[in-house]
Amino acid sequence: MHIRAPAIVCSARAHAEVGVIVRLLTADHGLVGAYVAGGRGRQLRPVVIPGNLVEAELHARAEGRMPSARVELVASRGPWLTEPLPAAAIAWITGLTAAALPERHAYPALYGALSGVLDAVCHAPSARGWVPGLLAYEALLLRELGYGDHRARGAPEFSDTADLIAGFDRMGIVLNRYPLADRRGDVMASRALLRERLARI
Length: 201
Hints:
Elements: E1 2-15, E2 19-26, E3 30-36, E4 53-59, E5 68-75, H1 84-100, H2 108-123, H3 131-144, H4 161-177, H5 185-198
Antiparallel strand pairs: 1-2, 1-4, 2-3, 4-5
Helix pairs in contact: 1-2, 1-5, 2-3, 3-4, 4-5
């Protein structure tokens, strides 16, 4: 296996003394787990932050073995992780992707949509500019995984904060029931934190 492709970091977990196991979403190869040597070191720690866009080179000597990866930063979400609402949105949407998608199944539409939602979270002037996109991404993920069409009906924009929160809650029920039914603990805790912060706007 030898892959070189742009990728979105969806999760990063410490492994051994200085390594990190990342889950990277690519357009053509789907979600790929890989080991990054030195991922906890000073140079690579800021690169393997969930939400970051990287150029990834993955190698595996044998089929079925976890590949090793070299990653170079293309776009960082780090500056927005100090802001409570964008940080919660980035943690939720990348955590959902890492938990719900099977590995090595290509979902090019999800890759493009996730990239767009992350850009919106980081650059929209307020949450009203990106929450509809986040909900559309959740609906697309459900559709791509075969759970039917859960797109919000009606106007594409929410009339007020209460309407926005109601739409957010409706989608949460569906996510709990389907793709996260067996692994919702930590992942849904991220969504609960995001909801709490959205309720304050």
